[in-house]
Amino acid sequence: MVKETIRVYARVKPLGRRQQAGSYSVDNEEPLPSLEITVPRDLTDGFINNKRESYRFKFQKIFDQEAKQDVIFDSIAKPVAECVLAGYNGTIFAYGQTGSGKTFTITGGAERYSDRGIIPRTLSYIFDQLQKDSSKVYTTHVSYLEIYNECGYDLLDPRHEASRMEDLPKVTIMEDSDQNIHLKNLSLQQATNEEEALNLLFLGDTNRMIAETPMNQASSRSHCIFTIHISSKEPGSATIHRSKLHLVDLAGSERVAKTGIGGHLLTEAKYINLSLHYLEQVIIALAEKNRSHIPYRNSMMTSVLRDSLGGNCMTTMISTLAMDKRNIDESISTCRFAQRVALIKNEAVLNEEIDPRLMIVQLRKEIQDLKDELALVTGKQRASELSQEELLQLDELIDTFLKDNDPDSSLDVGADMRKIKYCFVHMKQIINHPMTSDQKLISQDISEEKNSNEEVEKLKGLLQQRDNEINILVTMLKKEKKKARDALSRLNATSPGSAVLEQSPSMSLEESQSPSRCFSLKEAKDFSSSIPRLPLLSRATGGKMSLGCQEAFEVFKRDHADCITIEDNKQLLKQRFDEAKCLGVKLNEVRNKINCLKGKIIQRQIQRAALAVSNPSEELTSDPVEENLRMQIEDEKKSYETVYSRFKGLRVEIEHLQLLMEKVKMKLQKDFEVWWSEEAKKCQQEKPEMVTSPNNATVYPQFIRSSQHLSPNSSSDSRDSLYEDPAVKNNSTTFGNPTLKTRTPPNSGTSIPLTGDSQADADILAFIKARQNILQKKGLGNK
Description:
This protein has 783 residues and is α+β, with helices and mostly antiparallel strands.
């Protein structure tokens, strides 16, 4: 058992460009580093002002603005990960106001490989250690829980990849009689290597709930708990070590009066502040010595983290601080909370379990050994129960003992506890019920007679059932024979040249009377199908885009903020691929060189063996050439190991970069979907009057040009009319049999294409509006 208080660390977020720095200082010379925050007095409060100016807080370690992610991991997360590998539970959680860097510390950034957070670095470290330790058998599972508005959701559910929040399965809390918490509907996904674990982390981050607030562009609107479950067992041992590591990213607290948010963001802020308030209540209750009740059940987050707060766990807290003047009060509040957390003591216990399957095998083996020893002492093999003959012998011995009037007579049944117990029970029955033996015999005779009568009745019923079945089958067989005879007689009566009815195809009256009308309808369908639809980019359509939508997406992508990040990651990924390719070529060269040197050594040994056979009197000495070749092989092996370690690191970095690029691309696609749907709604509101005639359709002139091939019967005059001014032709264009009209809306230089299909019209209008907005942004106007 390990008793220790919760370790508390502080990390200061770097200031932004427009932020004014607050006054603070870090003192690392004391036994525990201290952080001093100075709040100057405000002259507007008057000359008499007793407000406190200086605040001093102590932490295990303080990381200033220049601290890197690898330093944070080595100092905070690595010791906890080592304890988890040893069999203890661990928890690391980040606490602070919104926008102070909690998610960046726990998960990491998506722009650079060096910005990896505690979770990906911990996964890499754990799987590296598991690969090195071959003395135990390890099993690793991963779970990802999100608590949004006091409702739990499973972010790793395999049936709902990258779906909406409402579609994810809800997680509920269940408590057993020992007050152990169980999470229903929370899936445990097995991860055999680092790559699978990182893919699961990426899937959970994709489903996570984020939103833009005045304090943070990508603010986490929920609490997330990423848990790594590890079980280890030595081969042949019945003891299993089970441990878990909680990596918690809490949502940031925020003052609504300062941020000025409303609507849905205000509701989320209420739930976030309420859950953090309940967390503080639990911390205060644990800090009090004589407190009998701890309010864990007030919120879902405190219920899940019950072991982490004052239980069987080694817990570490990271206080993220934003030291600008606007947020200095919230930073002081975070430091005060951290000082209260530092007073809580946890008792971490090594989690050992006995494997029930191996325990059953051991107990069976022990029972068999005891039976063999007993048979060796008594000379007889004993069964679990007495046989019928042994019971009859015991009954005779008991009757003889009871009828014997000699006071010195004894009942000797041997050193068998089964027989002794049976004799005691039998004699107790005789003493309590003297007539039991006679009644027992009578009842046995009666029961045997009843059983025999019941068996006879059952056999009679079964025999009657079989007779009925046989009769039914015989009747059916007779009917089938009769039908066969009748069919045979009718077949002989008919002639072989019987007439066969012939059916000829007939044409419907409507089609024969109006073929021109059918042709015109078909031609109209073909023409309407030739007009390109512009479906919105959504999951329902599988991500397929029309040509216009693709053009809008390309312009949107160039103007997006993440475009530079994608290009930088592409260049970096290309460099890493080229470097990995060069390393692979070098590895193959070194391997071929080693094989060549081994072949030379074998050839040298064959030559020396032949020389020894030809001159047996000559003594064999060490061959300097062979020694030189072996030294060259050792040097090449060291070079191979160096290059391979670098190649392995490059592979991990490439996989991580690919995950980052995929994440940024998905974010870009979602942003475009939102923008495109908004433009479609605007166009739908501004939609002009549509033509009501079913035979008329308004079409773009360029669309009409592209669809000329649909009507081969159209004359040259009608083709020429397509390129003429619509005003000259009274806004109508003749195309084959159907009549197509173009209608120009007021204050517009182009005609609006209307096909009669509401969905197609909405898509075309969305395309036109989006194209005009893009051209206006690029300064092209209505060109």
